[in-house]
Amino acid sequence: MNFNEIAKHRQSCRNYAEKVAVEDEKIEKILESAILSPSACNSQPYHITVCKGECAKKVAKAVQGMGFNKFASAAPVMIVLSEMPYNKSAATGAALKKNDYRSIDIGIVCAYITAEAEAQGLSTCILGWLNDKEIRDICGLEGAVRLVISVGYAAEDDKLRPKVRKDRNEIVTVLE
Ligand SMILES: Cc1cc2nc3c(=O)[nH]c(=O)nc-3n(C[C@H](O)[C@H](O)[C@H](O)COP(=O)(O)O)c2cc1C
């Protein structure tokens, strides 16, 4: 798949084939791509925690507050993205330019993870509805948890949905 095909096929998966395990080699490919993602001043101010087995189940519970994200319990792998400190130049740049580069960097690494997962035939859902404290306790993390990504194989009846997006003219301007 080229990138355009990946973009067209990736969709949030909320219907996993619970009993189908995710191969370790595929997780390794995802991590290889994730580590190559760009960040402000090459700071990579995040930590990636891959949760499998019982740990994945515990993290799945921690994204289900108020009854949301129930589907996550069926995902065999949960990837947690948490904050780490900036390097000096990124910290200086963020302060001077009043720009939250760390959140941007985490968004980019998340995009790399979900795109590589798609390339590997896996399905993902980015989860921002999460219990930061619970997940930090489960994973032994100090930095704030910003995103969790559920990873697994989509159930057979989980079909590709039509994309719902804003009209191109609403979000794109080309100036010369
Ligand atoms: C930062 C972020 C947080 C999200 N949080 C959740 C979530 O907690 N639960 C969920 O089901 N989907 C969540 N999503 C998925 C979005 O709802 C989804 O990407 C969007 O509706 C577009 O649909 P698609 O991914 O199928 O193309 C999140 C996506 C992003 C980027």
Question: Which SSEs are present, and which pair or pack?
Answer:
Blueprint: H1 3-9, H2 24-35, E1 46-52, H3 53-61, E2 77-83, H4 88-97, H5 101-119, E3 123-127, H6 132-139, E4 145-152, H7 168-171
The structure holds flavin mononucleotide (FMN).
Flavin mononucleotide is lined by residues 11-12, 14, 69, 125-129.
Describe the fold and architecture.
Helix 2 (24-35) packs antiparallel against helix 5 (101-119). The protein has 176 residues and is of the alpha+beta class. The protein has seven helices and four strands; from the N terminus they run ααβαβααβαβα. The chain has helices at residues 3-9, 24-35, 53-61, 88-97, 101-119, 132-139, 168-171; strands at residues 46-52, 77-83, 123-127, 145-152. Strands 1-2-4-3 form a four-stranded antiparallel sheet, sandwiched between helices. The structure holds flavin mononucleotide (FMN). Residues 11-12, 14, 69, 125-129 line the site of flavin mononucleotide.
Structural features:
15% strand, 176 residues, 4-stranded antiparallel beta sheet, binds flavin mononucleotide
The overall average pLDDT, rounded, is 98
- Total beta strands: 4
Distance between the termini: 32 Å
Present as ligands are: flavin mononucleotide
- Rg is 17 Å
How would the global form be characterised? globular
Determine the strand fraction and express it as a percent band: 15-25%
Structural class: alpha+beta
User: Quick one: biggest sheet?
Assistant: 4 strands, antiparallel
In DSSP terms (H or I, runs of 4 or more residues), the helix count works out at 7
Fraction of residues in helix: 25-40%
Query: Could you list the spans in which at least 5 consecutive residues all have pLDDT below 50?
Result: none
Strand line-up in the sheet with most strands? 1-2-4-3
